[in-house]
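Working notes for the structural subgroup meeting. M.R. asked for a predicted model of this chain before we commit to crystallization trials. I am recording the input and output together here so anyone reviewing the notebook later can reproduce the run.

Input as submitted:
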Amino acid sequence: MAVELERKPVSTTPVREERYLTFSLNGEEFGMEVGKVREIVRMKNINIIPETSSCEKLLMNIFGMEIPVVDMRLKLGFEGAAYTQNTCIVVVQAKNAFHGLVVDAVSEVISVKNDLLEPPPYFKDNANSDFFLGTVKIHNKPKHLLDIDKVIGMKETGKNLPRA
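Returned structure, recorded in token form:
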């Protein structure tokens, strides 16, 4: 006798479709709400801000102002890496301010129905996992969707993310 498993949505809210800009970090795919993205710029010279965490830097003169820039590899607990020709800065508006997010490469924009989201990856010993909205598989590849407001507000994880 075969047992059928019921697939339950992560959320009990009505089904709706959201768009996400996907990007890669350390060979993993992530996504953020398109509505938060203001601009994607090629990698520029970034000055280190003294006395800040290792993932925070400073990008000068975007939109006529200095905005904080965060290396997303370091923010999410991955090893740092040399910037390549694909490395870019995604400028987002989060936590009522502009922020630059350094990512390995921007991939694509995807549309996701919230009932297709799987629970976020399990993080043992890590209280910061609430910045994940969930994971969606596209062509059998997981894309981890992030709540950028929470990512900007969190401290560095100091731990590597689980592999899919």
